[in-house]
Write a structure and sequence with these properties.
The structure holds two protein chains of two kinds. Chain A is of the alpha/beta class. Chain A has helices at about 1-20, 50-65, 80-85, 100, 145-150, 165-170, 180-190, 220-230, 235-245, and strands at about 30-35, 45, 50, 70, 90, 105, 110-115, 115-120, 135-140, 155-160, 175-180, 195-200, 205-210, 210-215. In chain A, strands 4-1-5-14-6 form a five-stranded mixed β-sheet. The N and C termini of chain A lie far apart (about 80 Å). By secondary structure, chain B is mostly helical. Chain B contains eight helices and no strands. The chains are: A alpha/beta, B mainly alpha. The interface of A and B includes residues 36 and 161 of A.
């Protein structure tokens, strides 16, 4: 009896592996990576992903006639994913800068942003310059890190996989300031950080977000054309108003 | 400190979906890992010297590298080398398979070699070919001995699925992370995630205890 049980267990294991071996149908739809932990550009609400980036891409894809599906991914994995052709494009509030342009291609800019630093509400820090020699928290792999390394000399730069970890660290007192893209910081101040944190100094500006593609991707042209069309006929303005409550800057 | 436990209720459907995916990845990965591990362990216990060395290298390679590194390699580096695109879920299942197989190989080898040599000699004396001795005599006895370490590995693999947040698989931990990124309620959500894991591993432990009771360990 034991012999039969042993045999059947082994057979069951083999059968389950055989039936679950990956058989891929030809995939003609594009894989678009997003970092679904970046409110309000892409985040989880209820059971689905929503956000400015997702609505924008949906409009662009409709205009350019592209089939796609979203793939959630850690931000730090997005650029390697484009380099290895694991994904076709990515929208994650990715700031256009020269370092990145060396390894990936960008679409035309679709959002003007900047960085904002926050400190605990009772902090004595009053300007960005005072952040020199202090501990700052930021998110791994973001343009924020590059900016801090270029413009500030913090005593310690602590990087976290997600920005809400950095905010928690700020609240727990492990760092003196946290810095990230302005829309996300403002959202945090409005919601869970209300009354507990405050911005410090003026937000920096000059960052522009672009849609990221693999180097030499054939998608850049059609996407840029679609983006232009959307900006021209008011669809972009409608999406912008929906997420940011104001009209887009000209 | 203000805790809003209501956010846990809102998050439950997503967390439940994530838990299902964690279970799915762990069970499919373990199914493959058990078969592969059993093969490797038997090779290591009774195999040809060359096969033994190859298997030993495989086991050392997989046991000696962290699973995060392995899954990153499978998901990012392998596609570049082979030119094929890998789905994150497939990469995750594959990582669990090879990881658990390496550890289970040693478990199986230990269990097989722990069976008294008398049984083996008796089987051979009866004229059975060696593979039949392993399969019909040593195997079932060894099986009872490897249930406890096997259970250990099942629980470990289930919790190891949380490492796949790095490639964006929507399992339990990542669902928790995404929810926290939009409502910033870390303590409440992490508690819920921990509770889910406890429930899953607790059920596994109960099942294993049931199995052990049905098979008296020699």
């Amino acid at each position: 009896m034991l012999k039969n049980r042993f045999t059947s267990l082994v057979l069951a294991a083999i059968v389950s592996i055989a039936t679950l071996s990956p058989v891929h149908a030809a995939q003609r739809e594009l894989v678009i990576a997003t970092d679904t932990a970046f409110i309000p550009f892409e985040f989880k609400q209820g059971g689905s992903y929503v956000g400015f980036d997702l609505d924008l891409w949906d409009a662009i894809a409709k205009e350019a006639g592209l089939d796609y599906r979203f793939q959630a991914m850690d931000f730090a994995g997005i650029i390697p994913g484009l380099q290895t052709n694991n994904i076709d494009a990515a929208l994650a509030g990715i700031a256009i800068n020269d370092v990145r342009k060396r390894v990936i291609d960008f679409s035309d800019p679709y959002y003007n942003s900047g960085l904002t630093a926050i400190v605990p509400i009772d902090s004595k820090i009053n300007s960005i310059e005072e952040l020199n020699g202090k501990r700052i928290a930021a998110k791994t792999g973001t343009a924020t890190v590059d900016w801090i390394k270029k413009n500030l000399k913090p005593s310690e730069l602590r990087l976290f996989p997600n920005i809400d970890n950095a905010y928690m660290e700020l609240r727990a007192g492990g760092v003196d300031a946290a810095m990230h893209d302005t829309p996300n910081v403002l959202y945090y101040i409005k919601s869970a950080g209300a009354g507990k944190v405050k911005t410090v100094g003026q937000p920096t500006s000059g960052d522009q977000y672009g849609i990221a593609f693999a180097k030499g991707s054939p998608l850049v042209g059609p996407v840029n054309a679609a983006l232009k069309a959307i900006k021209a006929d008011g669809r972009y303005a409608a999406i912008y108003k929906k997420w940011f409550d104001t009209a887009p800057p000209l | 400190m203000d805790f809003q436990w209501a956010v846990v209720l809102e998050a439950l459907p997503s967390l439940w979906q994530g838990a299902q995916l964690s279970l799915y990845i762990a069970s499919v990965g373990l199914a493959g890992g058990i078969v592969l591990g059993a093969l490797a362990g038997t090779c290591r216990a009774y195999g040809h010297p060359l096969l033994n060395v190859l298997t030993q290298c495989y086991i050392e390679l997989i046991r000696g590298t962290p699973m995060v590194v392995q899954v990153m390699f499978v998901y990012f580096a392998l596609p570049q080398l082979l030119g094929v695109r890998v789905d994150p879920l497939d990469a995750a299942i594959f990582a669990i398979t090879i990881n658990s197989s390496a550890y289970l190989a040693e478990v199986v080898r230990g269990a097989l070699l722990s069976v008294g040599v008398g049984l083996r000699n008796a089987g051979l004396a009866l004229g059975l070919p060696f593979y039949k001795v392993v399969y019909y005599i040593l195997g079932p006895v060894a099986f009872r001995r490897l249930i406890a370490p096997l259970g250990n590995q099942c629980i470990i693999s289930l919790k190891d699925t949380s490492l796949f947040i790095v490639i964006g698989v929507g399992e339990l931990t990542r669902q928790g992370q995404e929810i926290m990124a939009s409502n910033f309620r870390a303590i409440e959500i992490w508690s819920a995630v921990a509770l889910f894991y406890l429930l899953m591993t607790g059920s596994l432990t109960l099942i294993l205890r049931l199995i052990e009771k049905r098979m008296p360990i020699l």
